[in-house]
Amino acid sequence: MKMKLVIPFLLIILPLCLAGIAREPLLAQEITGTISGTVTDPSGAVVPGISITLFAVRTGAVRNTATTNAGVFFFNDVAVGGYTITAEKTGFEKYELRGIEVHVNDKLDFPIAMKVGEVAERVTVTAEAAPLQTETPEISNLIETKQMLALPLNGRDFNQLVDLVPGIAPDNNRVGSGSGLFSDTSISVDGGLSNSNMFLVDGEYDLDSGGNGNLLVTPSVDAIEEFKVLRNNYSAEFGGATGGIVNVITKSGTQQFHGSAYEFLRNDKFDANNFFLNEAGQPKGELRLNNFGFTLGGPIWIPGKYNTERKSDFVFASVEWRREIRGNILQALVPSQEQRNGVLDPTCSVTPAPCTPVTPDPNEATLSGEANLPGATPNTPSPMIDPNSIAFMNRMLLPNTPPVNGFNFITSAPQGTFDHQVLWRWDHNFGSKNILTARYVDIVQHLTNINDQLFGLGDAFPNVSQEWHWYGTNAIVKLTTIVSPRLVNDFQFGYSNNNLRYATSAGSDPNLSGRQGFTYTELFPETSGSFPSLEPVDGFGDVSQGTALVQNTEPFSNRTDNFQYKDDLTYTFGKHNLKFGAYFRFNRKREPANGAGDFTAGTFSFNTFSDFLLGNILSYSTKRKRRIASRTARAITPATSRTPGRSFRRSLSS
Hints:
Strand content: 35-45%
Helix content: under 10%
Structural class: mainly beta
Distance between the termini: 62 Å
């Protein structure tokens, strides 16, 4: 039934398309360009049968074609780079056009005026500026290597230059910097939604599916040839996006060897201490930043034995490391030791007799209207304190500064970011008919001592911390076959993925990172083995990020796999250049249905701090651990709540 519908559809639509085709180049290619032109004689008449040669300046590769009966020629699927065109035929002087620069998605048209004369005579013209591309309605902006290397980029992230393109509005007033988990794609293009854009590396999909907020890989600026921001009216070939498209092209090897080496560094030796750390008598936060790497490209060449003319085999490699240790400021409002013992009213203002006033801790945050617990002294905890509350308090550090600035605990915990990125690319010409490209990018990112600095998944206490692992890959294999001077086929397979893992840091206190000290029973059998979360109570909470007072939500894992196939066939005849193609991308996403973090241990909230000490919960909620594996599936996670006023012992104790 479907075939019966498709065949009449093609029979109707295809003739209409052919009837409406004018002399114009292909719709936008993803990673190449098109060169076309019309050849005329001194009278202005078109000249068929002119031999046209396209010479690649960087690699020495040569392609040949001839003008059609309409005097028109096309070179399709032309790689980014510099070129020279020659035109010759008996009875005319040889024409040479130099200085042509092809950029990604370019559609260049060069009129060639031949002069009568001998072929031995030559007319040389230099293309001083790119011609106005009148054959496409595409609205786009090009960023080249020289701009990326000349402009200061925080974190050496090419994506920050997207912010400078007209019509771009970042969600957070500026594009963030970094790679992996810190890459930022939250931009509005010409008023579109920030999650409707598409990022490509050599035509391969490069977004973390689901959130569309991170790049799978962020190539080094030293490995990028150029990139183009397609803002509007781009070809239907770029299906899958309703916003903008950022199309990145990586560098390739050339006939000559070329490379670079670099290092950028920062150090806390050049910085002053944070004001609040200095006021609290805490040491200056540590800062060590080293961003270094190298690139190398050239021919695969054995003098006198292999690739002697250096025109068939080329390789390019880029390796970059980033090592950063940064002292993050952690702030919280925490109970003093006396308050943890149950001394909540040191002046005996609301505690009935007998009550002995005590001198409060100068770092203590005052509680209003809460009486001392029976049997509590500054040095002796009340026997009524619930063991689960003691387990929570064991994971809180004691105050170390007066609460005049809204917090009484502050420290600087060194968070580490360690990136390693490798890119290699191989280009091989099988004669003049087949061009093979293989390119691979891999990034490994390791974050240590995260605490509350990432999505609020941890708390402000470095005795139990978290680490994050990001593995990203983007690879392509591309084969361009020149079947004839007028028939070109381009096939590309691409694969990209990322694999995220969130776990307890190896440096965490093993006596506190699990369920040690908790006696309540979890409602569902699936459990992470971690301790539960404690919501802010009576003002006590995380001040740095405004998150839970105590929290540890690992483990968490998330994986994306993208498989992409694309094949285009182009044919030139008369004044026309036809393109047929198919594009298929399969995406697989596997992650917990609960979202970022594992909350199977549950979350507790209390009305007052005295209720917390006594174990009288306000609410308890937990989630079951489930996973989803789908391109578009969404899951609503079951949740359970307890009635206010119950206690640990009565409803949740084992």
